[in-house]
Design a protein that fits this description.
31% strand; elongated; seven-stranded antiparallel beta sheet; two-stranded antiparallel ribbon; 3 helices
């Protein structure tokens, strides 16, 4: 008479020990991946610096003049500054003088010009004579929103025309800004003639 051993005992007897993990191979892969990520980051940073050196011929933007707040404020806005690009080229980001740095923004428009205060980034001032116009658009250098979601202000920095993109915390304010800036530029152009 043969004894029948239960199936679970047979399986338990045939069981092998688990494969030993090859830690050196895993560590090599992790280190290789980290080196790759650091290399890509370094290359991106070098590209940013290179773009800045190509744009080094742009003059430094003006700073807010003394007595700017004494004038009548036409409009104020709080929101986000997204980028500045070459006018008409929505992907050609300008990085010189910190103009490519995204940040929070507080805009103030008066008859003297536009004051751009950016906590955590360099502030700048656009004189009324340098303003060229404003429009609503949907995208600028890495930021795309629904149609009319961005306030684009065109201004002159030296001989270069620049588009700067802003988004208000209350986007219903955008049309008033477009109207006020376009009215200010038409008034400025009329007095310049």
């Amino acid at each position: 008479m043969t004894t029948l051993t239960p199936l679970y005992l047979q399986l338990a007897a045939e069981r092998k020990s688990a494969e030993v993990t090859d830690w050196s191979a895993r560590i090599s892969w992790v280190v290789g991946l980290i080196v790759l990520v650091v290399l890509v980051y370094w290359l991106m940073r070098q590209g940013w610096k290179w773009r800045g050196s190509l744009q080094s011929d742009l003059p430094e933007p003006e700073t807010t003049p003394d007595g700017f707040t004494d004038g009548e404020k036409l409009l104020t806005l709080t929101g986000r500054y997204h980028a500045s690009t070459t006018a008409g080229q929505w992907l050609d980001r300008i990085v010189a003088h910190g103009l490519g740095t995204r940040s929070r923004v507080e805009l103030t428009l008066t008859g003297q010009g536009l004051d751009v205060v950016r906590p955590g980034a360099s502030d700048f001032f656009v004189p009324a004579a340098a303003l060229r116009g404003a429009r609503l658009d949907k995208g600028i250098a890495g930021k795309v929103l629904p149609e009319g979601g961005l306030l684009i202000i065109t201004w002159a920095l030296g001989d270069q025309l620049i588009d700067s993109g802003f988004r208000s915390d209350r986007s219903a304010e955008h049309p008033a800004w477009v109207e006020a800036i376009n009215q200010l530029t038409s008034t400025t152009e009329g007095t310049a003639r």
